[in-house]
Amino acid sequence: SQKIEQNSEALNIQEGKTATLTCNYTNYSPAYLQWYRQDPGRGPVFLLLIRENEKEKRKERLKVTFDTTLKQSLFHITASQPADSATYLCALGGNNRLAFGKGNQVVVIP
Amino acid sequence: DTGVSQDPRHKITKRGQNVTFRCDPISEHNRLYWYRQTLGQGPEFLTYFQNEAQLEKSRLLSDRFSAERPKGSFSTLEIQRTEQGDSAMYLCASSLGTARDTDTQYFGPGTRLTVL
Asked: Is the CB of B43 less than 8 angstroms away from the CB of A44?
């Protein structure tokens, strides 16, 4: 069966450190992968998109890697700030839809 | 604000009643999507439109659910004879629909439905 796995435990991290989140998937062949941020009671906000033929993408303090052999994406927030506290969703794209993981909560401690 | 908007933001209804939600996409976007999200889960795809044509529906979308996009602009999602299991956040997203493989979807704030 198809699965998209993100860590169910919240990641508590000290301000200024790098937060790293993992997204693993099985039985998917995504054309691209996206990361979204979601705050409580709000819709997801698009952060980054990485295509299947790309290894790494950066945007400001964010970095995403995509390994189609391992079927894994890593999402990094460098120099984390309390304002980065949120749930981060991994989404696999293709066939005109997104398939989302459950999300991983990040708590940045001042 | 030129983002995706949804109305209402919250809806409380009694079991058995019908409800309708509205989504206004980003104006130049051709594609519109509906997702459903329950607590602790990621959004689940329900259906999508290319302009006014509904091109795909998930098996999650039972016969009680119907969606329209009559003029290729705003969309409505109606749930008939609501059940408690329909309680969820209903999210709308839109995209340009021009890039076959890398079509970024932008989400609205969602409509929170509570069925009593």
From this structure: yes
Q: Which residues of A touch B4 (CB under 8 A)?
A: 43
Per-residue CA distances from A18 to B17, B62, B67 (Å): 48, 43, 42
Kind and range of the H or E element at B89? strand B88-95
* Pairwise CA distance, residues A62 & A59, whole Å: 5
In chain B, whose CA is at the least distance from the CA of A51? B102
- CA gap A75, A84 in Å, rounded: 13
Rounded Cα distance between B74 and B68, Å, is 9
Tens of pLDDT along B46-105? 999 999 999 989 988 889 999 999 988 999 999 999 999 999 999 999 998 766 556 789
Closest to B43 (Cβ–Cβ): which among A45, A94, A100?
Answer: A100
Residue B88's φ and ψ, nearest 5 degrees, are -175, 175
User: Which residue from A minimizes the CA distance to B42?
Assistant: A102
